[in-house]
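Q: Cytochrome P450 4c3, please. Structure only.
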Amino acid sequence: ESARLYPAVPLIARQATEDTNICGYLIPKGTTCVVFLYFLHRDEDVFPEPDKFDPDRFLPENSCNIPEYGYIPFSAGTRSCIGYKFAEIEMKTVICSILRNFTIESLDERDKIQPIMKVALHPSEPIRLRIRYRSILKH
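A: Structure for Cytochrome P450 4c3:
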């Protein structure tokens, strides 16, 4: 869900290899086409309440409603990121390790955090966090 809301790379570009007609518009061969993942992943038809953080969207019973190219944080097809699966596993491992040992609280309201789109997506200002050790029960 984090990668949907804030993809590390906010856009991908491809060059049309042949003349293509999309919804009545001619895309000539050689045209550079840009897909803004940041906005694609906020399509209300695919993701109801698109700005809401809802990890349950990706539970098996819910993710079947996401079209094949409706969620592509690492691009898709033959030119997709070769490290996609590794990155996905690494993100899950790091997040689980952190959340197992710490509680994290943002000190900033989410609507006050403005993303800046460059090569990589990043916040306009540092995000202030409160991180506390989680008390772990020992058996």
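A: Brief note, in case it's useful. The longest helix spans residues 84-101.
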